[in-house]
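Researcher: We're teaching a course module on how sequence relates to structure. For the next exercise, students receive a sequence and then see the predicted structure as tokens, so they can try to spot secondary structure elements on their own. Here is the exercise chain.
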Amino acid sequence: MRKLNLKWQFKGDGVLLTVVIFLSLLSIVMVYSTSNMRVLSHFVHLGVCYGLMAACYFMNYRFLGELAPVMFVAAIILLTMTILSQAVRGVTIFGHDVQTFYLIGFLVIFYITNFIAHKYNAGEPLTTKQHWYLMAVVGVFTLGMAKLNMSTAIIFFFTCMVIFFVAQMNWRFIAGMIGVAVLGATLIASIVFIGMKSDNGIEIGRMSTFVNRISYYITKDNVNGYGDQMVLSRAAIARGGFHPTGPGKGVIKYRLPENSTDYAFASLYEELGFPIGIFILLLYLIFFYRAREISKASGGPFGRLFAFAIGFWLTCQALVHIGVNCDLLPATGQTLPFISSGGASLAVSGIAVGILLNISKTNKLREENKPAPPPLS
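Model: And here is the predicted structure for the students to work with:
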């Protein structure tokens, strides 16, 4: 009787998965150190993250592409609900505020890459009308996000511009879109800033907070207290250095607002110091490199565009977070992928990496099934 082969072999990108596991382990240290009361819920969030990652790894990413129009409609509904919600950056579900912008950004990026790939697969170049349509989609969602979370809107916008560039869309449309975005952001920020100086100010979402943070970053004038978190973050980074306090012995982290989310890097750095800080930065750079390699090896335009987009999107979030924590950028409120606590961000990141692993698995299976070249006679 022939024995059943029960051996299962992982065929995804092992380096990418290893990077994510290391980041997750660091997140456990960070969450336990900042608040050991939240570590159980963090384990649950990590479980959901890896469960979704596994599900997407085993599901054919091309099948998910068929659901792109449904995902786009879901993104529209979520954006509308978020704008109308009383929550700061999301919607309130059963008394809990759930951040939605990570999911909205992911759904729209998925839709855009699928839309472009579908045209390329059909051998049809994008028409001028389709260029305008894609630009309109990006513009509407960027404006909607910017009302409540400017930093997420900026990262989303530039991720879409990178997608258009990689897809070799007409550069005039890309340059024009960037120019309009910069001009529009400057105009809105100027209106809000002038309004803040008068009694009849115009309040547009959380734009006043964004303007105040930019103002502090430029002038270092902390009269209104918008620089408190930046001062504390710098102090935590400086206290870590080459002589960190050690795990669980940090002090400044307890005074940092959102120490396990927006300032997760500073909290870790205070206790683990320069080597871990460089290690974290290196992990994200490796993550982007592996996503780029998966993109290059992909056999179709959808896998190629989406793999590159996800690598850029998550790495950009990480670099912005680290830049803010090191006072290289104005405060933004970006989380650190796979390290910061939070169910929504971990769940979306898990889905994104699961699809990346699925694309890499498909690439490897295609290479294995490629017919061998005929022997030389």
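Model: If you want an answer key for the exercise: The chain has 13 helices and two strands. Residues 85 and 91 are 6 Å apart (CA to CA).
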